[in-house]
Write a structure and sequence with these properties.
binds fe (ii) ion; alpha/beta; elongated
């Protein structure tokens, strides 16, 4: 067959990019079309920018395959990858723009579990003794006008004093360091726990290898996770960070916001707070008010 009979076909890198984009032209869902065409545009630009070689792409495929194989009902390596690449935080910032004055959100992280036990006001989330300093997290859930919200739900979870979540440590009881609390009639909550500690994100998988290969550390500053919700208000997924933590400026997953940093105050004597909470010194307290924006 002579070449004159052949139709023109894409031959350059840019021709291929244009052709791939064209194949998505008939996507019915306009948002899906926008996302797929933008994804192709940016990924192809990346390939051309770094002049990606085949052996490097095979390494990438292998990395993503291992990331998938690492995932099960207790380990979510893709969330870790998203977190360590800052994808989670950028998506959070785009998705959860709150009016000024409302509590800011931050990363959800890979350690939340559905079905945490319901807890009474002031109950303990430490299902098994650990070496941590006792801590009392308390405060109010308020609306944008400062009015208390009664019956707001606070889903709380935290690493134990050894820096591990229950899903990482099989010696811990199920649902250790987790609980769902509700505010009282004055919008108050009180959670008994241990002082949070800085911890390393799971480091024994492909994400850990990526951090090592790029000379990055895996530490997160000490924090307590909260999802705070109430009917008629926007839910907020957030953390409260310990103000003295040395990793506040280098969080491996970029989750720190100034408005979420709070003091964990030491109590060495049987003071008024100790009597009020029935606490034995030494212990720490952290007061933090959550402000919910209307739906
Ligand atoms: Fe965490």
């Amino acid at each position: 067959m002579s070449t004159a009979a052949l139709k023109p076909r894409p031959t350059t890198e840019d021709d291929i990019t244009a052709e791939v984009l064209r194949r998505f032209d008939n996507t019915q869902d306009p948002r899906l079309k926008q996302i797929m065409q933008s994804l192709v545009t940016h990924v192809h630009a990346f390939l051309k920018d770094v002049q990606l070689q085949e052996h490097e792409w095979w390494k990438g495929i292998d990395f993503l395959t291992k990331t998938g194989h690492m995932c099960d009902d207790k380990r979510q390596e893709f969330i870790l990858l998203s977190d360590t690449l800052g994808i989670s935080m950028v998506t959070d910032l785009i998705s959860n723009r709150k009016p000024a004055g409302a509590t800011e959100s931050t990363v959800f992280g890979p350690f939340h579990r559905a079905g945490a036990p319901e807890k009474e006001y002031g109950a303990d989330i430490v299902a098994k003794d650990n070496a941590g300093t006792m801590a009392y997290c308390f405060g109010r859930v308020l609306d944008m006008n400062g009015k208390p919200i009664a019956g707001a739900a606070l889903d709380v979870w935290q690493a134990a004093a050894d820096g591990l979540y229950d899903v990482q440590d099989t010696t811990l009881e199920n649902m250790n360091m987790r609980g769902i609390f509700h505010t009282d009639k004055d919008g108050r909550y009180l959670v008994k726990t241990t002082r949070p500690v800085p911890y390393q994100i799971p480091f024994d998988g492909p994400v850990g290898q990526m951090l090592t290969a790029t000379n990055r550390h895996p530490w997160r500053p000490a924090h307590v996770h909260f999802v705070v919700s109430a009917p008629g208000y926007q839910k907020v997924t957030t953390h409260v960070f310990d103000s003295i933590d040395k990793y506040l400026d280098g969080d491996a997953v970029f989750g720190v916001k100034n408005s979420l940093i709070a003091e964990f105050k030491m109590h060495d004597t049987k003071d008024d707070i100790a009597r009020q909470f029935g606490a034995e010194p030494p212990f720490v307290t952290c007061e933090f008010d959550f402000v919910l924006a209307p739906e």
